[in-house]
Structure formats: C-alpha cells, structure tokens
Description:
Blueprint: H1 6-9, H2 22-34, E1 40-44, H3 51-62, H4 78-84, E2 91-95, H5 102-112, E3 122-127, H6 134-145, E4 151-157, H7 165-168, E5 172-175, H8 181-195, E6 198-199, H9 201-211, H10 215-229, E7 232-233, H11 235-241, H12 247-258, H13 262-274, H14 279-298, H15 309-320, H16 324-340, H17 347-361, H18 364-367, H19 392-403, H20 413-420, E8 423-427, E9 431-436, H21 439-448, H22 450-461, E10 467-472, E11 481-482, H23 488-496, H24 506-519, H25 527-537, H26 541-552, H27 559-566, E12 570-575, E13 578-585, H28 588-610, E14 615-621, H29 623-627, H30 635-645, H31 647-656
Parallel strand pairs: 1-4, 1-5, 2-3, 3-4, 6-7, 9-10, 13-14
Antiparallel strand pairs: 8-9, 8-11, 12-13
Helix pairs in contact: 2-3, 5-6, 8-9, 9-10, 9-11, 12-13, 13-17, 14-15, 14-16, 16-17, 19-22, 20-24, 23-24, 26-28
Protein name: DNA polymerase III subunit gamma/tau
Keywords: ATP-binding, DNA replication, DNA-directed DNA polymerase, Metal-binding, Nucleotide-binding, Nucleotidyltransferase, Transferase, Zinc
Enzyme class: transferase
Amino acid sequence: MQYIVSARKYRPDSFGGLIGQDNIARTLRNSIKRGQLAHAYLFCGPRGVGKTSTARIFAKTINCMNPTPDMEPCGHCESCVSFDEGRSYCIHELDAASNNGVEDIKQLMEKVRIPPQVGRYSVYIIDEVHMLSQAAFNAFLKTLEEPPAHAIFILATTEKHKILPTILSRCQTYDFNRISIEDIVRNLKDISEKEGVSIGDEALHVIAAKADGAMRDALTLFDQTVAFCGREVSYQDVISNLNVLDYDYYFRLVDCFAASDYASALLLFDEVLSKGFNALYFVSGLSRHFRDLIVSKSGSASSLIELPGSLKERYASQASGLSMKFLYSALEDSVRCESAYRSSVNQRLLIEFTLMKMCRLVSVPEVDPVRTVPPVSKPQPAVPSAPPSLDMERLRKVWDDVTEKYKSVPSIQRFYSFMKSAELGLEGDAVVHFFVKNDKQKAWVEANVAEEIEKGLREGLGCPGLVLSVKVAQETSAPVRVAAPVRAVAAENVAQNVKKKSGLSISSVLQEDEVRTAESDAPGDVSGNRASEDILANVKQEDVRRVWDSMTAKYESNKMLFAAVSSGDVSLEKQEGRLIVHFSAANEAQKELIQTKLLSDLEDGLRTGLDIVAVSLAIEVAPDSEKSSPACYMPSEKAKYMMENSEEVRNLCEDLGLDLK
C-alpha cells in the first residue's frame, strides 16, 4: 500500500473533524441548515489551521443530496462520491499564485456561467487569493459582486491585509485561530494510537509547541519523528531530531542563579552553544522559562502554562524556592538582553554578563541591608560605639586616598572637588555617612560611585563589614560624629545662586555642591568667600583669552561652529564670588547656536582651564553688529554699496562714464 503523509491521510472530511475551529464550523452549519448561503466567503488565518479543509467540507456539504441532521455530508450520494474521487464538476479549486493574471480571471468568469451538472451549486475555492495582481482583482470585482445564483466563491488567504477593501466588502469574512497546544496534543495522541506509535505526553508537547499553532506542521513533524525513531518515540529522541533545547537546561541554569554559581552558569551556556543552538534562541527560552516560573508561583494562573502535568509540577517546585523579586529582576534582565542582542558587537559577552548579573540577584539584597531606609516610625537599633582604631582623622585620610582616582576620570572630574570637601559622619563602628544636599544627588551617588567608595573604605580602614550610607543632610536622627565641617548655614544662600538644571547628570546633580565647596569650608565662617575673592582677583583678561583660544581650537574642523566662537570678544566680570565670562557674538544666529550646542562644553572648559568652579558664561550680541548694514545679495545692492563706500569705484565710473547697476 502506498504511503500517505499524515497531513493528507488524516485531513478532516467533516465539520466534526475540524480541530480548534468550533465557532466557524457551527456558523457554517447553521447557515446551511437555514439556507442562508452568501455568494462569497473569505477565510483568513495562519498557515495549517484548516482554511482550505473547511472550504472543501463546506462545498461538499451544500452539494450533498442527503445531508445528516447536524449538517454533515453523507458521503454516499453521487456528489459526495465524485468529490472524494476527485472527479466532481461542481467544485473547482484554483491556486491564485499560479493563476494571478487578468486572462486567468476571464477564463474563470466564463466557467462561472455554466450551471452545475450534479448538485445545486458551482463552488469555486481560490487559495492564496492575495497573490492576484491588481488588474486581476479589478477584473474579478463585478463577477464577485453579482455572480450567477448557482455560483459560490470561497477565497482563502494567510495575508488579509493584502486584499483590496472592495473585495473584503463583498465577502463574509471568517478569521481562523491558531490551534492550541492542548488540541494539537489531543489530535496527535489519537493519530499515534491509530498508527501504533508509542510516544509520551512531553514529546507530544514539544512537537505541538514547535508547530506554532499549525496542525499541518504538527503532523509533518510527527511523521519526521516517527521516521527517525520508529514506533518507540522518546522525549530525548524528539528534542534531538527537532533541534529543540531541553527544558532541563533552564531548570539547571536557574539553580545556578539561586546558588550564585556564575561559573557553572557560564559552563552550561557554553554547553548549549557547543550543541549548535542559537544564542538568541537560548535567551528567548530563558525569558519564557522565567515567565512560566512567575505564572506557576501565582498558582491560580497555572492554566496559562501549556505544558504536561509533570513539567507543571517541576515549575511549581522550583518557583516555590525563589522570591518574586528575584524572578521579576531576572525576567527584566533577560528581556533587556534579548532586545539588545542584535545591536551588540560582542553578543556572547552580552549574554554571559547577563547570566553573571542574575547570579548576583539572590545575594545582592543581603550585602548592604543598612542602605534600606527604615520607616520613620521605627527607630534605628542601637549601634555599638566605634573602636579607638576608627577615628575621624584616619577616616578623612582614607577617604581622600579613595577619592583621589576621580581626579583623572574625565566623566567625573567635576565631581572631584565635591568629594575632597565632602561632609562625612561616623556612626558606631561600621557605618560611614556621606552627606549630600538633596535626593537627586543621593540617587546619582548611589548609582555611580557609592559601591566603589565603600569597597575602597573597607580595604583602607581594614573593616570588611563597613557600610557607606549616602544621606541627605539633616536626614539622620541617630548620633553621628562629623568628620568634616557641616555647611548647613551657608547651604541655603549657595543654593539660591545656583541655576537649576533638569535631568539627572553630573552637571545638574553636583553643580550646587561644587559652588558651595568653593565658597565655604566651615559653618558660619565667611573665610571661604574671601578665599574665592582672592582667587578671582588673580584672574586676568589675558588668562581668560588664552584659555578661550585653546579651548575653541578644537572646533576648527567645523567651520560654522569655529566662526561662531572665534570671531567675538571675551571679557570678564567678578561678581559675588563668581567669575562671569562675557562673549560677544556677531549676531543673534551665532548667539543661539552657541547657547543651544556649545554653552555647557564652553563652561566646562573655562572651569577646567582657569581651575575655578564658580564660572558661568554669558553670550551677548555685539552692539556694533546689531547696527551694521544688512548683507548685500542682489547685484544692484552690491553696486550701490560699492558706489557709496569706495571712492576708487566712484572715480572710475566718472572717468569712464559708467552707470554701475
């Protein structure tokens, strides 16, 4: 007996045999029973979900001479037998991909006029109708709108958006759904019993998931697996044949995360790559695994996991030992890695770094519990007094050594002066307080430098358990010994002189503290202001010009920017402990250009070149430039300008009798 693939052998031949399309089958049955048949139908949906099969069953049923009470074809009348044998003259199937021209549609229109010889209707099933050309669609419109009474058109497509709106408006549209994994598994189990194949539920779920909602694909994969394994099909054989990554890898990987064992996690990832799996496919599967763990942990939503019962129990068991905070953070990291994968230069390093971050998620909350600010209503527990070896002088010395490295870091150079004069406090024997002015500064410090400073203090002071706590000034209520003068008195006055900037950046977060550091070193003492005035007194006009010229030389490659910053005059003004540099732009356009694109960089360059923090740049338009004559563009304007401003040109015109226009 000739072998027939399962997709053809077990193709449904009645409405009851359709898998996962019960609503459409019921609607078509009712329309046949009531005699309410439309002249045109459009079946839309993904591949392999039963669009063409439904069209064939529908065409067979409406031409059946003895349909059953539930509107199924009898299978014994002349119409049904001729259809089953492929010799029916009243049911026509066309492939629009190979018959997509105007001439093909004209031939179809000629056939439509011929009434059926057997049966009541001539049914035309046009598959992949979106492949018709624009001209073919237009030629088909009139026939589709007013076909003969005996003609019914059934159009099938996987790409509904390519169908002309004028075609859509003339058809009854039915949208087919993807077939669920449970329905595919149930059908495959039925077929395996008929074929005498022994296969487990886990293996069937792998095939169903690989089919992506298409029954035809699932049957094709089933045939491929049986050809590979024979009559005894195991789970390992299926994942090996279909090149599917085993669930066990993800369970083992999460166990590595829970144990903070990044070395085992990296080795496991290397093993996955050595088996030929795509790295992006691995990350996508890891995200799906964390999603299933979160769903399993909720309990009530476990029905969202389309897996066999044994795997659901394993998911629930692993999820019970993990916190929701860990699962959410791990899922966030894996999704972020997945989205950044294609744009990454070193894709393997990106994934390995993500795996190492996940290994730290379990232990991170326990490293620094002191940083969590307790509620106001709960007083902080008493902290033992500091040992004699940990004093303020030693703390300040180690602090200066630790923060010295920021002097050479380009992105944090302006932060250096703030660090050198930082206000510190010591609570007990294990907590060092670093006081900042506001929450914005606190957030930046904790996100960028707190961890490195804490590590340096631990090594320098020899205290492995030491914790650095970043606090807003006057936030703490516990007794704290201050290691540097508190500048609370001058803070308000300094804050009024600082221009606020939006956004979380080094410039906007730390500008206030840099100015305050330059102006004050002790509470209630104005010697800091006098020191600033002494420094400002030594700044001369030529110093500013020299710094300005060296700073703007880097714009020579951009002629427009270089012309804007090199053509004006630079002057300085000393006002209330600040240095204001005035630059005269040639016109309003140059002023706007400098303010929008160069102001921040120029101010940074002045602060660095003059070694003064309290420097601001004011851009003005030169008075002479505002009153200057407008530019001459037209030839007549140029001639007039030359006659008015050049005596030589006037004399030449008079001597030669010229009329310059």
